[in-house]
Amino acid sequence: MNPRRKKRLFAVVAIIFGIGSAIGLTLYALQENINLFYTPSELINGKGENHEKPFIGQKLRIGGMVVPGSVKRDEASLDVQFKLIDTGPMVTIRYHGILPDLFREGQGIVAQGTLVEPNVIDAFEVLAKHDEEYMPAEIAEAVKGIKHEKPKYNLNNEN
Question: What is the CB neighbour count within 10 angstroms for residue 124?
C-alpha cells in the first residue's frame, strides 16, 4: 500500500472514530435527562411484560388523579403532600412550591420528580390537567358573540 492510500485510510478511520465517539458521548449525557412516564399502578406493580420498576433516585413523570382529602399543606412553608391514584394503589407526591391554579382534589395531574421510596416521589414540577371543555379566556371572549348556524348542505344527500 502506498503512503497516499495509508493517509486516506487513516483519515477515514479517524473521522469514523470521531463521529462514533461524539454520538456515544451525546447519548451518555442525555441518559441523565430521560424521564419515563408511569401511572401509580405501573410504579408499584412494574411496567410492561417484565414488570420493570424504577429504581430509587430515578427521575420520572407520574400521572393520575389527586385523591380527595389527601392534600396536606404545611402552613409554615410551601411544602405540599398529596396522594395520586389511577385504578390501583396510591402513590404519595411531595412538592415544594406554588401549585398550579387548576390543581384541586379529584383532578388529574402530572408530576415530574425523583423516586425517593418505592411509593413516594419528591416532585420538582406539578402540571394540572384541564377538562376537554377548557377554553382560554381570549378565545372564549372572541367566540362569545358568534351564533352557530346549521350548515346549508346535506351530508346524507337528502332533499
Answer: 13
Query: Position 77: which residue type?
Result: S
Q: Which amino acid appears at position 118 of this protein?
A: P
Does the pTM surpass 0.70? The reply is: no
Reference 60, options 79, 89, 100, 33; nearest CA is 33
Cell output for 119: 411509593
Long-range contacts formed by 40-44: CB under 8 A, 24+ apart: 40/64, 40/84, 40/85, 40/86, 40/88, 40/89, 40/90, 40/91, 41/86, 41/87, 41/88, 41/89, 43/91, 43/115, 43/118, 43/119, 44/88, 44/89, 44/91, 44/118, 44/119
Q: Give the pLDDT confidence of 45-94 residue by residue, as tens digits.
A: 888 788 888 888 888 888 888 888 999 998 889 899 999 888 888 999 99
Does domain 35-128 fall into CATH 3.40.50.2000? no
